[in-house]
Here is the input.
Amino acid sequence: MPKITLIAAIDRNNAIGYKNQLLYKLPNDLKRFKELTTGHTLIMGRKTFESLPKGALPNRRNIVLSKSVSTPYPKTEVFESLEKALAQCSEDEKVFIMGGEKVYHQTLSIANVLEITEIDSEVSEADAFFPEINKNVWIEKKRIPHPADDKHAFDFYYVTYMKE
Here is the structure.
C-alpha cells in the first residue's frame, strides 16, 4: 500500500467546511498545501473535487471517488471506491487525502501521516468535520506557529502527526 497522508485545515471543533466550501481563507496554508502535494497523488471525494474553482490541481495526479464512474472530470481518474483507487497506486507513491469528511473518516485508520493546519478559531456554521485525532495513536512530531497578520485573520499552526 502507498504511503497515505491526510491533509486538512481544521478549527478548534474539527470543522473543515460549510456548504462545500472551505471555512477560512489562509493564503500561506494554500501555498503549503501546494508545496507538500505537488508531484504526488491526490485522492478526494466528488464534492471536494466539484468545489475546486479551477478543477483538477496541476502537477499532481488527481483521483476522484464517485459512485458514478461514467461522469467525466477533466484531467482526473475516477474510481467508485477507495480500495479501487488505492489499488491503482504504487507502493512507493505518496498519496494525499484531501477530503471531504467521508473520505477522511474512511482513511484515518490506514494513514501514516496527518498534515493538519490547526486554526485558532471556531466557526458558527459548519457541516463537515475532520475525525477526532486520537492522541494515543497519533503523536505530534512538529508544530509551526503562524501568527495572524494582514492576510490571515487568525493564528494557526502547521502540525504534523505520525502514528505511534
In short: The first strand starts at residue 3 and ends at 10. The helical segments are 27-37, 46-51, 82-87, 101-107.
